[in-house]
User: What shape does this take?
Amino acid sequence: MPPKFSLDEQAAWGVVRDAGAGMLVIATPTGLASVFVPVVVSRDRHTMSSHLAKANPWWREVSPGMDVLGIFLAASAYVTPTHYPSRSEQPGVVPTWNYVAAEVRGRVQLHHDPEWLSRQVRSVTDLFEEGRSPQWSVDDSPSEYIDQQLKAIVGIEIDVVSVEGKAKLSQNRPQIDLDSVRNHLAQGSFTEQNVARRMGPGE
Assistant: This one.
């Protein structure tokens, strides 16, 4: 990875937080299997937790301690060479993609204990309800209904081995090109505006 694109560990975890959910990928005897889930990162960042429906076959492929790759994307947009003013003097340019992403590698285990599942569901709910008004709480639903829902899910816990983050945001282009790309993306779609904001302040 080019050093200019590399994120330090704290920034990489920031990408995971910003993404909120990611793709968990495992290698099974019949090939790769993936599931997209929201995650909660522990305070010490040693573990991540989530859950999925029992009806989803992904968890049946998991064996205790199996390697898992978590992929988290916080920003993504196509970049056209027509946004490079420098191409008039240096026409050797090609399209590219700007993005901010993180990979978390770890070892996965499953949980079926109702108490563990209840804690996980509450933690993920509290995380994503934070700052909302009004906030929804698990306790807003009847306890019998929640108990029924807990029986229909499987818990996922990942012991984190490593995290790596990358922010490819036109840092390899002349400043005039970076400014142009940011300004054009800032006028585009929601996803393009998200990339533009991460490229720094405009002129």
Notes: The chain has one domain: 3-84+95-172. The CA atoms of residues 142 and 148 lie 10 Å apart.
